[in-house]
Amino acid sequence: MYQRKIERELRCPLEYGLDIFGGKWNSRIICILFIKGSLRYNELKAEMLDITDTVLSRTLKELMQNNMVERRQYNEIPMRVTYQLIEKAESVIPIFETICQWSKKYLAPDDINNSICGQFLKQDGEFFILAEE
Q1: pLDDT band at residue 121, thresholds of 50, 70 and 90?
Q2: Where is the HTH hxlR-type domain (predicted)?
Q3: What is the chain's percent helix, strand, coil content, to nearest 5?
Q4: SS3 90
Q5: In the Cβ-directed half-sphere of 8, how many Cα atoms lie within 13 Å?
Q6: How far apart are CA 120 and CA 33, in angstroms?
Q7: What is the Cα–Cα distance from 74 to 68, expressed in whole angstroms?
Q8: How far is the C-alpha of 36 from the C-alpha of 103, rounded, in Å?
Q9: Quick one: which of 23, 94, 105, 114 has the fewest CB in 10 Å?
Q10: What is the residue range of 109's domain?
Q11: Which helix (H) or strand (E) element contains residue 70?
Q12: pTM over 0.70
């Protein structure tokens, strides 16, 4: 796993948040695990579509180090491992929902991709998946 040579200096809380759930893959993994629940590695990879094994594995390790994702290993043969969100990661879902609303407002309609990360909204305090249009 990549280790910084110089310790990162976080000057404000926004930098901390963006460091944890920013980037290309972190938010996608969090959204997918929120909507789909606990998934095995290959199930998660199938949802991601264009991610390599190396990048998915590294990103999951980083999310686990940041206490966003939990890896559960079951004592079964063959071995079964699942990944799921923990409370800290679930707490960023309202932030993602707000970002999705903002993006839909300012992004051209032709640029909107109906990816799973854009398919959740809040209604009466509960999140639900949008129907495909």
Answers
A1: very low
A2: 12-111
A3: 50, 15, 35
A4: helix
A5: 9
A6: 12
A7: 20
A8: 22
A9: 105
A10: 13-119
A11: strand 69-74
A12: yes
